[in-house]
Amino acid sequence: MRLARMATAFMVSFVVLTSACASSGTAADRSDRPSTRRDIISRAEMDEVAATSAYDAILRLRPAWLRTRGGSEGDIRVYIDGVNAGDTQRLRVMSLDRVREMRRISASDATTRWGTGHTAGAIEVITRG
């Protein structure tokens, strides 16, 4: 009886571990797939739209990212590879070819990560390379 329980526990552990390993991939693998999350724009999604700038891609794929409650679009902070790049005007001149992934960061998460001054949240751009 004890041996049967041990064998069952081993099989359950084996199944859990193998399924976890099979589902994980590298960051590059994940950015090549279309995102199903509303707060991420993947490289694969960008490749599917006719856009030349990061701003145009956001307008076509996630226009809600540029809307704020009671503020203006200019209140949204932009970070490129973790460095403050200003407001959304920076996205208008950023070539989409340079972008690997974009993320919409909520006001509370942006404040936790980068400090005060993020009442409208932030857009984080991760570049290729």
Protein architecture, described:
This protein has 129 residues and is of the alpha+beta class. The chain has a single domain (27-127), classed as TonB-dependent receptor, plug domain (Ferric Hydroxamate Uptake Protein, Chain A, domain 1, Beta Complex). It has six helices and five strands; from the N terminus they run H-H-E-H-H-E-E-H-E-H-E. It has helices spanning 2-23, 27-31, 43-48, 54-61, 89-92, 107-114; strands at residues 40-41, 77-80, 83-86, 99-105, 122-127. The protein has a five-stranded mixed sheet. Strand 2 (77-80) and strand 3 form a beta hairpin. The longest helix has 22 residues, at 2-23. It is globular and about 65 Å long.
Give a brief outline of the structure.
The protein is α+β, with helices and mostly antiparallel strands and 129 residues long. The protein has helices spanning 2-23, 27-31, 43-48, 54-61, 89-92, 107-114; strands spanning 40-41, 77-80, 83-86, 99-105, 122-127. The chain is 41% helix and 18% strand.
User: Strand fraction band?
Assistant: 15-25%
Q: Quickly count the domains.
A: 1
Strand order of the largest sheet: 1-4-5-2-3
- Low-confidence segments, ≥5 residues, pLDDT <50? 14-31
Corresponding CATH architecture: Beta Complex
Shape: globular
